[in-house]
Write a structure and sequence with these properties.
Radius of gyration: 16 Å
Structural class: alpha+beta
Strand order of the largest sheet: 2-4-1-3
Protein name: 16104_t:CDS:1
Organism: Racocetra fulgida
Length: 133
């Protein structure tokens, strides 16, 4: 993940607010062009303007983005957070980018599922901390 992020950070615009590293919607990256990677640092992973990156299990927020989100999400809402974020992204009130393909994927594994030895928690994650794997 570190080497991918170093490469992606080189093409990430300075005014980014959110970058999605994982998402649930399969339409990300299907329309539009990826941001230019003049040095071809990451031939597999491309960065796109976000469209509808549902789910909030893998994303990063810049300091400026955090301030914008606090301002926008400060009032109560009845919608799930990922829906609110997509609404803000689509209104172009924040600059959001999505990494395609995702480097973090949500598994269908439940915490009681011990049969799949290939699924592991990230180092220092909540799942690892509570020994949920």
């Amino acid at each position: 993940i570190t080497s991918i992020m170093v490469d992606i950070h080189r093409i990430l615009p300075a005014d980014w607010d959110i970058i999605y590293l994982g998402y649930c919607n399969n339409s990300e990256g299907k329309s539009g062009e990826p941001l230019p990677d003049r040095n071809n640092n990451s031939p597999v992973y491309k960065l796109f303007k976000s469209e509808m990156p549902y789910c909030t299990f893998a994303y990063a927020v810049s300091h400026a983005g955090a301030l914008k989100l606090i301002n926008k999400l400060g009032s109560s809402t009845n919608s799930p957070l990922d829906v609110e974020l997509v609404n803000i992204i689509q209104s172009k009130e924040i600059n959001s980018y999505t990494l395609v393909p995702p480097i973090i994927v949500k598994s269908g594994k439940s915490y009681s599922d011990k049969e799949n030895p290939d699924i592991h928690s990230l180092k220092n994650s909540t799942s690892e901390y509570f020994k949920l794997d």
